[in-house]
Amino acid sequence: MVARIGWLVTVFAWILLADGSMAQPWKIPPEKMHRGPDPVAQVELAAPHDPTFESVARHYPMLQSPREALGVLESAREFVVTAGGEIELNNYQMDQPGRGEAYPWAAPENKATIYFLFGKQTPKTRYGHGNPPDAKRLIDGYLPMVIVPFTFQGVEYRQTLFAWSQRMDPDGRLWAYVGMEMKNSTDAGVRVELAQQAVCGRKQRVVPLGSWEFDLAPAEERRLCLRIPRDGIVPDTEITKDSPEFEKRTRRAELPFCGGFHGVETMEPQEFDRCLGEAAQAWRDRLGRAMTIRVPEQRVNDAHRAWLAYLFTNVDKEGELYFPHDGSGFYELVWGIAAIQSCRAFDMYGYPDEAGKYLDSICTLVQPDGELKTAFGLSDSGTLLVALEDHYRYTQDKAWLARAADTIGRIANWSIARRAKEKEGQTPGAPNYGMIKYQPSGDYPEPDFSFLSDTALCVGLEAGARCLRTVGREADAQRAAAEAAAYRRDIEAAMRRSVFEHEGQRLLPILPASRAWLERANYGSTGYYSLFASLILDTEFLPAGDPHATLLISALEQRGGLCAGTCTFFDDIDHGFTYGYWLEMLKRGEPKKAILGLYGSLAYGMSHSTYSSVECTRIESGGNAPTLPHLRSGTQQLKLLRMMLVREAGERLILAQAAPQHWLKQGQCVEVQNAPTMFGPVSYTIQSAVDQGRMTVQLTPPTRNPPEEIQVFVRHPEGKPIQQVTLGGKPLDTFNADSVTLREPGEPLTLELHYAAK
Fold first, then answer.
1. Which member of 281, 313, 342, 441 has the greatest number of CB atoms within 10 A?
2. Could you tell me which residues are beta bridge partners of residue 225?
3. CA 250, CA 94: separation in Å to the nearest integer?
4. Do 130 and 23 share a structural domain?
5. What domain range is 29 assigned to?
6. More confident residue, 281 or 17
């Protein structure tokens, strides 16, 4: 989540606005707000078939300004590749883990941009200028190594960019490797005049880095290979302690402000290729350890692996600690919920060691009194407790949980003490009784009573109590559990008191004593209301089908809170917050809405060819903030895909619930292998032979602590109901129109599902 109140005016200067507006979001005229139902959902959900990427992407322009981060696994430094293939460096280092912050538009004095130019005349043509937004590619389709094609004066160019350090060491010196391939595609000789330069610092100093000339015969090919040091910034000696830049950036004052750039080196193609192979293999090795998802849609196969790569790129090794941060070159900080939820995604996809290591690092931000010091919301504390319990449930590592128990106990004690102090000044029956006044979450700056803050912390206390009981700290567990039970009663009562009616619709405000967020949007559900409503659903404080959850969903769906199945933030789509809504749709048996969310994210929430997830897009224009790849957005998309294919529900395991129907056309297969669950790993394949009236499911169920039942969904591409099921050749009667239920499954098994003939 971004510090919107402070940054939106500036960000809107970056994005391609449909109307050129520079207004702050709460000042947008009511007539311009989207207050009705999701216009894309109205079309896509009315169709008899599931949404597809193509059907969803047709409604609005794609994201216009893709941006990728290139780094070595867990390095604290990255390079950024812009839309046209430029390299951006932001010379910024967190002064305190979890507390620092950097924005590319706010710190130009620390910024260098490196790019290629053609010709000797002025104006020169910049490499990549005019490329379509989906021109770039990733090596192998998903590795964080970028290919940028460009054609100029009959020569076909192909720029390859990747990050490298010796032995791929995150603590080693980081280099950007740049390979330029060129091929004369004309019938005549062509002279290539190519130069590289950097634009540095607030004064936009132009620094020549190199120039090259080549004569290319028809069909002749050439290569130019360079490497650029991440630490090549030359300090600006003109900025002193008396400079305005210094005064405005007191927390960055120790940094060298950018006055130039040096250190670019040419290299032999053979060495370039060796390093390329080394870097690619390091990424393949790491990404190859994840659970396997293979579906008959290459975009999805590539995208989820690219999201994992970007998440790893956004992990910063700081000494012996590892902090996920929200972005490379813009949010260089540990943003509580975002960092913690990324750890949960790593657990879900098969990285228990990494998830544990990152959670351990985040726990160092918990103070001796138990307050989690990321300064981004009370909900961070609750989310951390839930993530710690989840990690234990995935790993069953009791020794690790015992080590984490002290942190869990301190957070619980701080929460109990904070609530007790808050209640001293409250009257029973007051709108906020039993709740805690604290910064709600993310970038909403004012301390307030918030259903998000309190539901997250309450659920966290419940999780913490279970953890403490598991490691034998019974007295602490009982105290936390009793407090959580009382806390839950107070929140539920506050929700009942807060419900009101407007224009014939019952609404639940997010701030129990205030309707400010609804009033600010003329009672539309966009803005902070949309984001926080979905986050409340994400806490899972409200059981599936709860009436208060229904109120939140109704507001989102009917009052402008969604577009393309994704949360809105006034006239933008915000791609980091909808997971709670999607999860609730799965719980309620509405898989089409989750599928719409996946394709809405793929169509508008990231670049179409490099899958770099963005924070916000202006839907009418495809304009986007420069905040990508965005940790929170990539995390929620990973979690959504996983839950569509593998979802725990209490003691039940649900498989393929939202696998789109078109994935199971004749001859196609959906495959999931070694998916971690809280019951142990699970694998399955669904093979379609629908033209012959059947489908086959091969399932290897979890055996560590088996679920009470497994429900396997097989959604026929034409919506036909299952008519007969056999298990090992014997009839099975525990099925309905689109799923089969297996009770206490043990050994690997094969199901045959039969349908009516054409």
1. 342
2. 179
3. 13
4. no
5. 1-62+523-646
6. 281
